[in-house]
Each structure stands twice: as structure tokens, then as C-alpha cells.
Amino acid sequence: MDALNEIHEFLACETPPQWIEHALENQDILLIDHAHCEKKAASTAMTLMFRYVDRTDLLNKMSRLAREELIHFEQVLELLQTRGVEYCHLSSSGYAGGMRKHIRNHEPARLIDTMIVGAFIEARSCERFAKLAPRLDEVLAKFYRSLLKSECRHYQDYLSLAEVYAGEPIEDRIALFREVEGRLIESEDEVFRFHSGIPPKA
């Protein structure tokens, strides 16, 4: 998949093997947090639609993204139910907060940075789906492979909007968030989540 190669080039690093092994050993938590991630992604898209009502291209792309993420949320809930896993609240890892604290607070810089962060979150999701799928049971592997196309498009949508709204090169901002994201992924984390760094040792 060309888009997957592009994502590997976009990210600073691959997911560490420790995270992959921990995810395979803790699939219930992985799926519960995956459901939360889909719900948060839909909420983020809706928030952007309410905040930037004058940007038609954003409204169209975020509307589609929100619908898709909610469908994915429903699909993960169904997987949890069929596996007898109860959907429950989970605390967040420091990943998203660690990224968002570098977002500038004035416009249009705030919007541009928010789009770049969205691109990194979606790119990391796609990279992890691809890494996990070959090592999961047939049902979950098929589901994760089915998500690759939409998650790759979400990454591209966020990045293209950032480029359009900047009206100038954004390589420096991408480089900053790439370094931050890579550091978060390769650092030890306090909890294991779908988007988290190296899981805590038992």
C-alpha cells in the first residue's frame, strides 16, 4: 500500500516491539481503548465543525470523518460484545495531551497545528493497525485491515487541510510535531493504551 509507505516516512519511528507484544497480551484493554479513540476522533471532528463554520472544505471532510469514526465505534462495540468484554471508562495516556500542548493559541496557527496533530494521530493509528493485523485472530485482523484505507485517508485529509490553510510551507511545524510524537511513542508510559508509549513493566 503506497499510503502506508507514505505514513512510515511521515512518522519519526515505528511502534516499539514492547508495545506490540503488550497489545497482543492485553487485547481486551486494546479494544476498549480503541472504542474510546474512535469516539474521541468523531468528537474532535465535530468540535472543529462548530469552531470553523466558515470553512466549507473542513466542514465536508470533518463531517465525513465523524460519520466514519462513529461507524468504527459501533463496530468495536460489537466486537467487544461478541467477545464478552464490557465497555468501560479508561483513563487516557499522555499521548494526545503531549501533542496538543504544542499547539499555538492564535489563529490561523491554532487550526494549522490542530490539523497536523490530527494527521499524526491518524497516521499512528494506521501504522499500528498494520503492525497488529498479521498477529491477530482472523476476525480482528480482518477488521483492522478494513480500517487501514479510511485511517490513511483521514491522515491525508488532515494534512492537506493544514497545507491549504497555512498558504506557505509547514515543514517546520510538521518536523516539530514529528519529533514530539516520536519521543512520546518511544518513551515509557504510565499506562497501556492504543496511543501510548512503551507500556509499564509489570
TrEMBL record:
GO terms for molecular function: tRNA 2-(methylsulfanyl)-N(6)-isopentenyladenosine(37) hydroxylase activity. InterPro entries: Ferritin-like (IPR012347), Ferritin-like_SF (IPR009078), tRNA-Hydrxlase_MiaE (IPR010386). One of its GO terms (biological process) is tRNA modification. Pfam families: MiaE. This is tRNA-(Ms[2]io[6]A)-hydroxylase. It comes from Neptunomonas qingdaonensis.
